[in-house]
Amino acid sequence: MTAPLTSEVAVDDVVNAPEWVRNLDYEGFQKEVTNLGKMLLAEGGQEDIDHLNKIVKWRNTAAAVGILTMALPL
User: Fold this and answer.
1) Do 26 and 5 meet the contact criterion of CB atoms below 8 Å apart?
2) Which of 18, 34, 38, 66 lies in the 20 to 30 Å Cα band around 24?
3) Is 58 in a helix, a strand, or coil?
4) Taking the model in full, what pTM does it have?
5) What is the pLDDT of residues 5-14, one digit of tens each?
6) Exposed, middle or buried by CB within 10 Å (0-12, 13-18, 19+), for 2?
7) How far is 61 from 11, CA to CA, in rounded Å?
8) Of the candidates 5, 44, 51, which has an alpha carbon nearest to the alpha carbon of residue 24?
9) Domain extent listing, the chain
């Protein structure tokens, strides 16, 4: 079960928020995202998982190269 999207928010945060944030149907948005996740899970296969893992490996490689080269002089 997912946690509700409600939380305690200061009145000033709500008053100063952009109009789209104040008017967003949070429950409807949660339902749409949940349904999209279920649809993608049902339609996805091993090929999609392999592709995502490949992207994650490239991201990790780029992060490692970046971290290792930060100490190099300019």
Assistant:
1) yes
2) 38
3) helix
4) 0.49
5) 555 666 566 7
6) exposed
7) 44
8) 5
9) 1-43, 45-74
